[in-house]
Amino acid sequence: MPYSDIKLRIEEDVDQRLTRLNDELRDASAQTILRASILREWLGELTYVSSFGAESAVMLALIADVDPDLPIIFLETGMHFPQTLDYKEELIERLGLTNVRETPPSEEERLALDPKNTLWKTDPDACCELRKVRPLEPALRGFNAWITGRKRFHGGARMSLPVFEHADGRFKVNPLANWTQEDVQTYFKRRELPRHPLVAQGYPSIGCWPCTKPAEDPNDIRSGRWAGQDKSECGLHIDKNERPRVF
Ligand code: SF4
Q1: Ligand 1 nearest atom to the CA of residue 127, by list position
Q2: How far is the CA of 225 from the centre of ligand 1 (A)?
Q3: How high is the mean pLDDT of the chain?
Q4: Which of 154, 208, 220, 247 could form a disulfide with 79 if both were Cys (CB 3.0 to 4.6 A apart)?
Q5: How many whole angstroms separate alpha carbon 204 and alpha carbon 188?
Q6: Rounded to an integer, what distance in angstroms lies between the CA atom of residue 204 and that of residue 222?
Q7: Cβ atoms 30, 63 nearer than 8 A
Q8: CA distance 158 to 99
């Protein structure tokens, strides 16, 4: 990296860096955003948090093209569909990914807070906190930035998603923020990527089995997630200070 770039990076504060990156890359291709992020901005400091869900193969393939050794965090909630676990292995093999890290909740906390694995029925926010939010923080230690697969067409709060953002002390990179549903489908076909087996059964967005149903509204791909509840996100992308206190 040229000395002038290193000096610039040291002198920038978070807001300046976000402005520079969004100005430079907000309309760039996902490939360009990933190359700049992995090889220039956060060399050795970047990870991708993947659910290995309905659209995850797109980002995983794009990452594999740049660096198949990039650390990838999979939050092993213990509540995934068996099809998701099989699909994860298939993608690892197919794309040559070498650094997928399974991150389970603390067993001590799980036994104390949800010994029967039924917390999702009574308090899904607490269940997500136990199984996703809390395990992620230690898994992200040592990384200054993480990649997410969120897209604006998912709707809700995601409709105003920037390509680069900063929350809870880390940068987030959203290379697919600008992508449409059609872009995703086209990329699957062009790369001949395997589909998650549940997509063919009407699941366009896939999380844990107790909280995922086939989409109720074909125009809202997340309408099968926590269907019928006042909940649309697991909490990973809600600022620490704005999350409900659940424990
Ligand atoms: Fe629990 Fe459902 Fe959240 Fe999974 S998605 S952690 S089962 S509440």
Answers
A1: 1
A2: 10
A3: 93
A4: 208
A5: 14
A6: 7
A7: no
A8: 28
Q: Please state which CATH class domain 3-211 belongs to.
A: alpha beta
Pocket of ligand 1 (CB under 6 A): 77, 79, 120, 124, 127-128, 131-132, 207-208, 210-211, 234
pLDDT for the residue numbered 16: 96
Q: Kindly list the domain boundaries of the chain, sorted by start residue.
A: 3-211
Is pLDDT above 70 for 2? no
CA distance 115 to 235: 22
Q: What is the pLDDT of residue 9?
A: 66
**Inter-CA distances, 116 with 9, 125, 127, Å:** 49, 16, 12
Ligand 1 pocket check: which of 208, 231, 243 to mutate, most ligand atoms within 8 Å of Cβ? 208
Three-state secondary-structure class, residue 72: strand
Q: Whose CA is nearest to atom 6 of ligand 1?
A: 128
For ligand 1, atom 4, which residue shows the shortest CA distance?
208
**Residue 83 token pair:** 């099809």
Q: Which of 38, 41, 42, 20 is nearest to 30 (CA)?
A: 38
Q: Tell me the CA–centroid distance for residue 128 and ligand 1, in Å.
A: 5
CA neighbor of 50 nearest in space, from 83, 92, 82, 79: 92
Catalytic residues: 234
For a ligand 1 pocket test, name from 211, 226, 236, 238 the mutation site with the most ligand atoms within 8 angstroms of its C-beta.
Answer: 211
Residues 204 and 215 sit within 8 Å (Cβ to Cβ) = yes
Question: What is the CB neighbour count within 10 angstroms for residue 42?
Answer: 19
Give the torsion sign (CA, 104, 44, 63, 165): positive
